[in-house]
Amino acid sequence: MFHFKGELKHKRVKRFYARTNKTKMFVTQIAKHLRRERILCKIFQRVKHQAAEKNPLSSNVAANSSTSLPSRQPPAPSIPFEQSDPLPLTPPELHHHISNTQQFHENIPRWLDLHDEDVALINFLPQLKDHLLSRLLGHVFNGVEPTFTDDERDSVEIIYNWMYRHKTMCVNYTTYDMQREQDTVNPRTRPDIMVLSYEDDGDSYHPYWYACVLGIFHVNIQHTTPHLATSQSF
Questions:
Q1: pLDDT tens for residues 33-72?
Q2: Which of 28, 51, 54, 102 has its CA 20 to 30 A from that of 140?
Q3: How far apart are the C-alpha atoms of 118 and 11, rounded to whole Å?
């Protein structure tokens, strides 16, 4: 992507005027063209970087020169805007709904290794399995997930050690005036949520918890019990 300064930058923007319908809305149309250009440049850079990772021999010239490819950065938990993750209509009887696509997957051990300096991910895998076991066993969430033993956690196998990212999640909820409503959570554009708290009455009691959604994931698991093995998605 080229960067222009001064008069050259003005000329670059004015070139987009020929692509508009030359009405009062031409400013908005030029802005849309600039946005599309930025998205296409990001896609080009991503494809170029992925090709270099798959074929490191092709970067020998760059390695012998003073310039080299940047080190790999940990992937963002959200899906980029230009990627498609279609979400079908959400049935009203469901509490929440995500797409059933599995094209955006992360290897959990590798993902944790890339984020090894993130204190928020300390004990991530044991806590993830505690959460999965709680849902499998039908435990009602009371603000704190129960802690299971290592043997109990071993009964949950995450298939391929993959977790799958999603772009959005649709939630059915009840409004203040007791009406049914739907809303969409998007980690990129609409990440802020509020839920009922599970605090006890006291001086610091507050009826709601507030959070920012960093990413939306699901995993496919196999749960092995002494008499039965089942596979589910969470």
A1: 778 877 888 888 888 777 777 665 554 544 444 444 445 5
A2: 102
A3: 44
Burial state string for 42-57 with b = 16 or more CB within 10 A and e = fewer than 16: eeeeeeeeeeeeeeee
pLDDT band of 155, cuts 50, 70, 90: very high
**If you ran DSSP here, which 8-state letter would residue 59 be given?**
G
3-state SS class at 203:
coil
Q: What's the CA gap between 43 and 58, in Å, rounded?
A: 20
Phi, psi angle pair for 159, to nearest 5°: -65, 125
What are residue 220's phi and psi, to 5 degrees?
A: -100, 130
Single-letter amino acid code for the residue at 39:
I
To which H or E segment does residue 36 belong? helix 26-54
